[in-house]
Design brief:
By secondary structure, the protein is mainly α. It folds into 3 domains: 83 residues, no CATH class; 45 residues; 167 residues, Rossmann fold (3-Layer(aba) Sandwich), CATH 3.40.50. It is built from 15 helices and 6 strands. The chain has a 4-stranded parallel sheet with strand order 2-1-3-4, with helices on both faces. A two-stranded antiparallel ribbon has the order 5-6. Helix 9 links the parallel strand 3 and strand 4. Helix 11 packs antiparallel against helix 12 and helix 13 packs across helix 14. It is flat and about 80 Å long. The C terminus is likely disordered.
């Protein structure tokens, strides 16, 4: 690996105890010892890309997904076991033939069968989509070593222990934003988006019902079973209210090669939830099977600047429909003319 301080290429023996053997300075992450195979330079490079060169702040969960994405595409299930079984099985087979010991063939056949079984399981997807570092373990396994060396989080990463501001002011809100993910809420609040659009931010259906606003409801959710259930449950709990689905569409996400989902076996939906989704319509049998296996694409997996742009645009359109002054300005073209000049560089505020 390359030392993040002196940029010398270090062999394993030249970096004992996560310390460069040339400049003597400590570094946080060694690709040989951490599950994500990270080094400090890669973390900085990814953080810079996510923050759009430092123009926006991100939450640790967004960094977790970006650093895990490459490993989520494949699987390491039984990789060492499969290779060892084939290697030892082949070696024992050769010995059996030369030594003329037929009983050794039984052992070699067993080893080869083990290797074939693991290979078949890998081909069927065993272990695929399982994060090497679970989301909830990322602060301990990656960010804690980083803090101990650099006394701060990677550049542009917001400290969850130090909120960017208090809860958004709900007085005079024109709409409600429902988002079950506290990390995404923290990200949006840090950018000032709820305050900018007069959104009351809540996390659940019950909180949406109690929110001090009779305006439209925006549902921002992960692409998973819980997310697909959120919109119909909101419409059921808020009859007569406009409920807009602002989450990434399931079929669109599944068709995107760049969208890398992951699985959480602990959060598989209940059969009753899948039956409810089937009754609602709009989901193919393949979609329901995908959801039932616990697959999900999280909001923190979206490029942060794009997530801000989408929510900003939806909230702005909702504001035009509920605020007479904004609606009148939109009719005059005041809020629409920048679109002809090009995309608004969200995150440059």
């Amino acid at each position: 690996m390359i030392c993040p301080h002196c940029e010398r290429n270090l062999l394993r023996k030249e970096r004992p105890g996560n310390r460069c053997g040339h400049c003597g300075r400590a570094y946080a992450l060694d690709p040989k010892t951490n599950p994500l195979r990270l080094n400090d330079l890669r973390v900085r490079r990814v953080a810079t890309a996510l923050t759009d060169g430092g123009r926006i702040g991100i939450v640790p969960d967004q960094l977790w997904y970006a650093l895990s994405r490459k490993r989520l595409r494949g699987t390491e299930y039984g990789e060492g076991c499969m290779g060892t079984a084939f290697l030892v099985g082949g070696f024992v087979t050769v010995i059996a033939f030369f030594a003329e010991e037929p009983f050794l063939l039984i052992g070699s056949a067993a080893l080869l069968l083990v290797g074939l079984g693991v290979a078949a399981a890998r081909a069927l997807g065993a272990g695929r989509g399982l994060p090497p570092v679970p989301r909830e373990s990322f602060p301990t396994q990656v960010l804690s070593p980083w803090r101990s060396v650099y006394r701060a989080l990677p550049p542009g990463v917001l400290d969850p222990a130090r909120p960017a501001g208090g809860p958004p002011d709900t007085a005079g809100t024109t709409a409600v934003l429902v988002c079950p993910d506290p990390a995404v809420i923290a990200f949006l609040v840090a950018d000032g988006l709820p305050a900018r659009h007069g959104l009351a931010v809540v996390r659940s259906v019950a909180e949406a019902v109690a929110a001090p606003s009779n305006g439209p409801v925006l549902a921002l959710h992960d692409t998973d079973a819980d997310g697909e259930l959120l919109v119909p449950r909101l419409r059921e709990a808020l009859p007569g209210r406009t409920v807009l689905d602002a989450g990434p569409p399931l079929r669109t996400v599944r068709a995107l090669p760049s969208a890398v989902p992951y699985r959480d076996p602990r959060r598989k939906p209940r059969p009753a939830d899948l039956r409810f989704l089937a009754e609602q319509g709009g989901h193919s049998p393949e979609d329901l099977k995908w959801l039932g296996q616990g697959w999900r694409f999280p909001l923190v997996g979206l490029p942060p600047a794009r997530l801000l742009a989408v929510v900003d645009r939806v909230a702005e359109r909702v504001g035009r429909g509920t605020d007479p002054e904004r609606r009148r300005a939109a009719e005059l073209g005041f809020l629409t003319w920048p679109e002809a000049a090009g995309p608004d560089p969200v995150g440059g505020r």
